[in-house]
Design brief:
alpha/beta, Glutamine Phosphoribosylpyrophosphate, subunit 1, domain 1, Rossmann fold, 3 domains, eight-stranded antiparallel sheet, globular, binds 5-amino-5-deoxy-1-O-phosphono-D-mannitol
Length: about 600
């Protein structure tokens, strides 16, 4: 998730673009850049870092021009650097582009364009698009953009400019937001409303596959057949603060709601044909390396550690390999048993968690191959690992991790599927079944999110208590740990997660009349056992808030509240069950008046040991 802005009109564009980028800062902070249509050519200023770094770079000599575009980068292809910063130009500086999204087929396009004589200055996928537009240019920017669009796959929102057509900007989108703000003899473009509402409330929100030609006095919107459409602008009534959070009260809720899209981005180019094909060639595994793996070690902290626990169940079940999961701070000091055939996986959203980084370094010192699952390109973990599987969740602002966790799970599922295919651990038909079930998950997550009010009602009970328990068996236990952490972290309610069968070995003593117990009973394979544990709690007066799959209605009379998750195979339930638990933590914290996005004593990235 990067941020893009554009302006065309009578005013000086630089201060307006800069102010727009400042409003979008939460969308990316790896590099910042602005391109302006000047008298003699397009002037590009860019730098590694944030908007403030760009301002320093520019100094007192503000560049002039009445049209231009700007970008804040959240790195995906190529680490944060000045060369990889946007705007990108083509061979000639006459063409520039700022882009948010991922051009999936950029490598073959880059090869082809290089063969046609194009020279590349960055490692980004975006630069390929600039060259493609230049390649098709025959005096009409709109037409060359429309031709380029026929060639690219992936997600994008971009603005293109050409010095030979200074009176216009062209923009387009697919699966990534882009909107146009209508002013008086001036128009604005932005990734989201936050950068527009200071100027205008009349907004065109571009739909997928639409392209727009924007001048200072007009906006023409074209559909995928290049036909002009008659569209009316919307009148937006949101206030500016809620616009920054996509209209939500908190970043955490925005990020919870972004999860279907984050899943689709993380799958993009990896899981295709409705899940029938899995491709993680980006990991550069040699066949022999995969064959040789005899043990897997997963190391992480906090929420990422909980994702690792799900990975253990999954990998052991599918790959039939022993998997150990360790908290990074423990791994380092316990002289872990590693051998040449161990694959070490570290998981970290930020890629900067000190304990995880230290564990990664220890594993590499011991000669281990380390595969990192991380959300941040250019982070220390990404740079120091041997192989990296990026999650494409986009920046996570709220301290409580939600979309990062879900995409970490997806990365683990895809990795397992990939290794299983290479090791022939399952028959091809079974692998395809798993792939297509994974492919359906974003829509199932959407379904759960649409029922947030049901969860808010459950929070109404939970909010009055200072202590609660989460129970589950098997994969449900791993999710219970994550649900309890979310609740503790933002609502300050003491929450303990237990393997459901373990409660009777001591903790049952704490079950008193009315105490809320969140019971996950999603696993068909252990449903009867879970039901027995629920009955133990009910018999002692506990108030059971239960989460099950559709079709498990028999539990309804045994519990105090029940939430039905869409049906899927047991192994996928963690990706669904965690969603209402995130919402439960969120609504409970809101009901208790807690500062949801910035809980006390915590920061987003823990860079001390
Ligand atoms: O950036 P990381 O994934 O390495 O962070 C690890 C933990 O600090 C993090 O998951 C933490 O537990 C979250 N705030 C939980 O919501």
């Amino acid at each position: 998730m990067s941020g893009i802005v554009g302006y065309i009109g009578k005013r000086q564009a630089y201060p307006l673009l800069l102010a727009g980028l400042q409003k979008l800062e939460y969308r990316g902070y790896d590099s910042a850049g602005i391109a302006l249509q000047g008298a003699d050519g397009i002037n590009i200023i860019k730098t590694k870092g944030k908007v403030a770094d760009l301002q320093k770079e520019v100094g007192a000599n503000l560049p002039v021009g009445n049209a231009g575009c700007g970008h804040l980068r959240w790195a995906t292809h190529g680490p944060p650097s000045k060369a990889n910063a946007h705007p990108h130009s083509a061979c000639s500086d006459d063409f520039v582009i700022v882009h948010n999204g991922i051009i999936e087929n950029y490598l073959p396009l880059r090869g082809w364009l290089a063969g046609e004589g194009h020279r590349f200055a960055s490692e980004t996928d975006t630069e390929v698009l600039a060259h493609l537009i230049e390649h098709y240019y025959r005096g009409d920017l709109l037409q060359s953009v429309q031709e380029a669009l026929q060639k690219i796959t992936g997600s994008f929102a971009f603005i293109a400019a050409c010095h030979k057509e200074k009176d216009r900007l062209i923009c387009a989108r697919r699966d990534t937001p882009l909107m146009i703000g209508l002013g008086e003899a001036e128009n604005f473009i932005s990734s989201d409303l936050a950068a527009l509402l200071h100027h205008t409330r009349k907004i065109h929100i571009l739909e997928n596959e639409e392209t727009a030609l924007i001048t200072s006095s007009a906006v023409k919107i074209y559909n995928s057949e290049c036909t002009v459409m008659q569209k009316r602008a919307q009148e937006i009534t949101w206030d500016v603060t809620s616009a920054e959070k996509g209209g939500y009260k908190h970043f955490m809720l925005k990020e919870i709601m972004e999860q279907p899209q984050a899943l689709r981005e993380t799958m993009r180019g990896r899981l295709s044909d409705g899940g029938q094909k899995i491709n993680l060639a980006e990991l550069n595994f040699k066949a022999q390396e995969i064959e040789n793996i005899s043990k897997i070690f997963i190391i992480a902290c906090g929420t990422a550690y909980h994702a690792g626990l799900v990975g253990k169940y999954l990998m052991e079940k599918i790959l039939r390999l022993p998997v150990e999961v360790d908290v990074a701070s423990e791994f380092r000091y316990r002289d872990p048993l590693l051998c040449a055939k161990t694959l070490v996986i570290v998981i970290s959203q930020s890629g900067e968690t000190a304990d995880t980084l230290a564990a990664l370094r220890l594993a590499r010192e011991r000669g281990q191959q380390v595969l990192a699952i991380t959300n941040v390109v250019g982070s220390s973990v990404a740079r120091e690992a041997d192989k990296v599987l990026f999650t494409w969740a986009g920046p996570e602002v709220a301290v409580a991790s939600t979309k990062a966790y879900l995409t970490q799970l997806l990365a683990l599922y895809m990795l397992t599927l990939y290794l299983a295919a290479k090791r022939q651990a399952l028959p091809p038909a079974r692998l395809k079944e798993i792939g297509s079930a994974l492919f359906k998950l974003p829509a199932q997550v959407e379904n759960i999110l649409s029922r947030e009010k049901e969860v808010a009602a459950i929070a109404g009970y939970l909010k009055r208590w200072e202590s609660t328990f989460f129970i589950g068996r098997n994969l449900d236990f791993a999710v219970a740990l994550e649900g309890a952490l979310k609740l503790k972290e933002i609502s300050y309610i003491h929450a303990e997660a237990y393997a459901a069968g373990e409660l009777k070995h001591g903790t049952l003593a704490l079950i008193v009349e009315g105490i809320p117990v969140v019971a996950l009973a999603t696993q068909k394979a252990v449903l009867e056992k879970s039901l027995s544990n629920i009955k133990e709690i009910k018999a002692r007066g506990g108030y059971v808030l239960c989460f099950v799959q559709e079709g498990m209605e028999a539990l309804q009379n045994e519990v105090d509240s029940i939430f039905y998750l869409p049906t899927t195979a047991d192994i996928f339930l963690p990706m669904l069950a965690v969603i209402p638990l995130q919402l439960l933590a969120y609504y409970t914290a809101v009901a208790r008046g807690c500062p949801v996005d910035n809980p006390r004593n915590l920061t987003k990235s823990i860079t001390v040991e």
